[in-house]
């Protein structure tokens, strides 16, 4: 048996002198389903203009709508804004900011500068080699 049929049956059995409870305080409406029932209830039609009719409607121009939605190029204004406040920070300040932003990970560390090794030349001359050959091998 549904709740609506049960309510109607109770209304029939009610004594005639007892007045009905206001609609907001009816029994069975205080449960969790009360909010859902209120949402499902159809709204009464509001007085006002009927939106289904064409009377009073202004026709929009497609060209005007296109021009309204057309993207605007702000490049010139942005460049003027950027060039207006031209201040260069001190070298020491920029170095400090860069040093603070360097992380502890090895990938964040700047590469170490390695000094190029100069090719090592010999200390001995050709005369020294000939002299060594004569002494060691005994070749005149």
UniProtKB/TrEMBL annotation:
It is found in: Nucleus, Nucleolus. The keyword Oxidoreductase does not apply. Its main location: nucleus. Residues 1-37 have a biased composition (Low complexity). Pfam families: AROS. GO terms for cellular component: nucleolus. It comes from the Eukaryota. GO terms for molecular function: enzyme binding. Residues 105-120 have a biased composition (Basic and acidic residues). Residues 1-56, 99-125 are annotated as: Disordered. InterPro entries: AROS. Keywords: Nucleus. PANTHER family: ACTIVE REGULATOR OF SIRT1. Belongs to the AROS family. This is Active regulator of SIRT1. It comes from Pteruthius melanotis.
